[in-house]
Amino acid sequence: LSVNTGSKWVATPKMRWQNVDELHHFLAWWPLSFTTSANNLSDIKVDMTKMKEKDVLVARKSTMATPGTPVQLQFDHLMARFDVNLSFGGQYDGYNNVSVSLDAATNGTVNLIDAAGSSVVAETGSNTDVQLAQITSAADYSCSALLLPQSLTAPDLKISFNVGGITKSFVYNHPTLSLESGKRTTLNLQVGTDYVYVVSVSVTPWEDG
After folding, report:
1. What is the pLDDT of residues 50-102, one digit of tens each?
2. Which tens digit of pLDDT belongs to each residue from 171-194?
3. Residue (of 159, 207, 149, 155) closest to 181 by Cα position
4. Which residues pair with 188 in a beta bridge?
5. Residue 78 burial (CB < 10 Å; 0-12/13-18/19+)?
6. Going by DSSP bridges, is the β-strand pair 183-191/156-163 parallel, antiparallel, or unpaired?
């Protein structure tokens, strides 16, 4: 068991390097509840609809023994982040009750000890409408969701809002969305009178956690 004293992690019982001739492998994840057993690290079943903490952070490092020197771990996001920014035409003055959802897989399998790095395989057929939560930005309306890394072909992005007491609904299909582990995919859309069209799309490192 390792406990954070506020300035460092202290292991009980005290951990020692096994030798100085071989690589030592370190693995850490957050939250602890993501998996409670070291016996299934290559086959962790995930259901995003039931996870309280969806932002899973993972650190992996292999190093030679350095007695007396702390092992520095870099945590990275395991899931993918998907952001949508909406711009509304002038005809939609006074819009409210905006809702955005994406048809995406929510079940999958995680391997934290894959030789090539931690991997996630989304389960085919586990798609559901994932509601995006509103976030603050400079756009007319922005929302975001944490999703399993996956490639989506023409997925349904459903947009609805109220204006003048009338509910307007659109379904936008982007040709391909590649949601990558540790990356932020941002879709900028313009909402017109009869259609929604893409302004730009970007994939950038997801650095804040």
Report:
1. 999 999 999 998 888 777 777 888 999 999 999 999 999 888 988 999 999 99
2. 999 999 999 999 999 999 999 988
3. 149
4. 85, 200
5. buried
6. unpaired
Pair of tokens at residue 103: 């048809």
HSE of 148, CA atoms in CB hemisphere, 13 A: 28
> Are the C-beta atoms of residues 52 and 32 closer than 8 Å to each other?
no
Contacts of 143 (CB under 8 A, 6+ apart): 83, 84, 98, 100, 132, 133, 134, 135
Distance CA 59, CA 8 (A): 17
The total of other beta-carbon atoms located within 10 Å of residue 139's CB is 16
Residue count (the chain): 209
**Residues in CB range of 136: below 8 A, 6 or more apart:** 142
